[in-house]
């Protein structure tokens, strides 16, 4: 008997800006990712105000899901997906974010995608904003630093809710909203890069701008949630946190406190606002000590209280350590690095692999909030190479996923209300952090490469058939 609930939502996750392509087709405007060049683990991607001749902008074609969605969704159905987490490209609906009327061709595209999902018995899980802010809003308002974006986002949500009210039940307001507390995340999530031209890793955004922009997102999210609860009671609205689990490197009390502060700022702050409906006391102290003076409008605090989410979702890839000592070895990670854990191994990109950390994380989240949880991103980015038989034998990916699913099962036994699992990049796509294709996550291999070549054909990896078996057994058969 499986420990996972009978209606557990097995599936996979992708993001519009990383796999749709067709960046200027059928009236779509340009978004922040459309201004990002490709990069690698050692050569960071750049953001350019103007498109440079000869530069490669990987989101422009990506894997062209826009023209391959029927084929791709059929492959997801073959694996047995119960749900598919995808996102909507804001600039397909409002090319600059400020049009008087939405773009009908953009709306019709997502009608086709959701209808195709439903035909195959797949429940869409839709992220409303996943790193694809209209670039016109960056130029005019410096992204979410401008209060004007609150009403523009809510109007965008209202259009989506009404159009897809009979096709989509589960919505996430913002992807990895807590990445806005970090410099690179402020580019991806907040779009606070007005006039910036250069490597994404070099941008520096002040605490004042960053947290003001986050406040605007909190208000926008809460308004959208409250509106949906009032007008579409069948909807379930969730948040989405990039959970970067960290541990104190030593038992030095200074390390314990340093790690607690890291966890509060990086992981708990945003969800405390979105789940509990108010700013936590520890952030009020942080603001005072860092010179942050949030500008709130009358009624903002009441809006936050009313617009709390129904369920909690997270991405989980890795963990790291925190220390106050100078002799520790540093290691990279997803948005936020840390100190090396001597008990863990790392991926090709230096992300420390920690399946037990997922169990720990799920328990901590559930103990704090007591609402249903869904792991909406998890996976191993690797350099998949075809074997002599022309196939991808990705036993390393299977091993990674097997260990994490096993720890999810332990968390369920511990009492965590876990509602679903959608591994990241279920089909190969463009990496958000590095802008490359070589960092592959998918069960499905796409013939597309970092120089822009490739025929975009799709092939099943060994992990495709393994995950198919996992879903069919509701997580019991992990061999």
Automatic annotation (TrEMBL):
Keywords associated with the record: Glycosidase, Hydrolase
GO cellular component, one term: cytosol
Superkingdom in the source lineage: Bacteria
GO biological process: carbohydrate catabolic process
Gene3D superfamilies to which the protein is assigned, alphabetical: Glycosidases
GO molecular function: beta-glucosidase activity
Any Pfam family matching the protein: Glyco_hydro_1
SUPFAM superfamilies to which the protein is assigned, alphabetical: (Trans)glycosidases
TM ranges: none
Record bears the keyword Hydrolase: yes
Membership in a protein family: Belongs to the glycosyl hydrolase 1 family.
Protein known as: Glycoside hydrolase family 1 protein
